[in-house]
What does this fold into?
Amino acid sequence: MNKFYPISLNLKDRLCIVIGGGSVAARRIHKLLESGAMVRIIAPDIVPTLQKLLESNSSLSWFQAKYRGKEDLTAAYLVFAATDDSYLNEQIALDAESLNIFSNIASNGILSDFIVPASFNQGDLQVSLSTSAKVPGLSKAISRDLEDLLGPEYSALIMLLDQVRSLVLNSPNKEDQLNKFSQITNNYQDILDKLYAGLSIDDIYKDLILQLGLEN
It folds into this structure.
């Protein structure tokens, strides 16, 4: 089994091609659209959920046909093979490799150049995890548990620290302030405890500004 390298990609306006129109393809497509990708489906038929998405999302298109070969992958940034034909999925992987395009092959981590981890968002906090394609169902179960654990306070934490960091970066004593800010982020649990206790975001923000000696 490959040792995968964890990475987050900027797919804004990038063309991602999904071959297959079933439930697996639908899950991939939902995530891709949420990431701002331009998505093209290649499949003779698609499930009703994808039909609805086509009607409401201009970033999604459908080429209603069977996969023909390399010419269908032209200009793709990423390729997802999500058909129920293992031989076809393997051929798609080979075609994508010959074009130097990364591909993800449903239910076959060995053939995939990359895997899609289980993930969830809490505001700007994005958590992704995998079992290196060995037990995908376990990844989903752990992800659900973590989503329950990491509540909206984490989103507020990021918002607060982002605002403070912007001030720090514009401070005349930036280097010294960055060291102090690093100590605050390393001890983020203190801020979380205040959020859990019901303190207002404004009050916590003012306290952070005082700790750093910054003017609001």
